[in-house]
Specification:
140 residues; mainly alpha; Ferritin; 7 helices; 54% helix
Length: 140
């Protein structure tokens, strides 16, 4: 169970419309290494961790990723909420708009919709944690 505070972790107050930027940022919403996949990855993998501390840490990280998911949604919404038809066409956001108008849909910048196949949970702690590090870009 989560205790949800009805405010963003960090205030987001974008005044200017920029659908071209929104098109790039949306990959952080539902792309292969975006916030939706990250939250599902950690919250799914937590169950097979051998230690309570590891399980608790993955729960905390997964919950934090859900907060990031909400912030990215806010950013995309604010960047597109007042766009004109000219901005829509010039930005390349028109294909997204045809399918979703201003609704938020988890997808990559390429237009590929989010799928659970974007993350892994195999039940082996070493494999799962290695996948987590790779997805977060911490393996060099």
């Amino acid at each position: 169970m989560f205790n949800y505070e009805k405010r963003l972790e960090y205030p987001i107050n974008i005044k200017e419309t920029n659908p071209k930027l929104a098109k790039a940022i949306i990959t952080q919403y539902g792309g292969p290494n975006g916030e939706l996949g990250a939250s599902m990855r950690y919250l799914s993998q937590r169950y097979t961790m051998p230690y309570k501390e590891c399980m608790a840490l993955l729960t905390d990280i997964g919950t934090e990723e859900l907060g990031h998911f909400e912030m990215i949604a806010t950013i995309v919404h604010q960047l597109t909420r007042n766009m004109t038809m000219e901005e829509l066409k010039a930005s390349g956001f028109d294909a997204y708009y045809v399918d979703h108008t201003l609704g938020l849909w988890p997808q990559a910048a390429s237009g590929t919709p989010f799928t659970a196949a974007m993350f892994q949970s195999v039940g082996d702690p070493i494999t799962d944690l290695t996948e987590d590090m790779a997805a977060d870009g911490t393996i060099v």
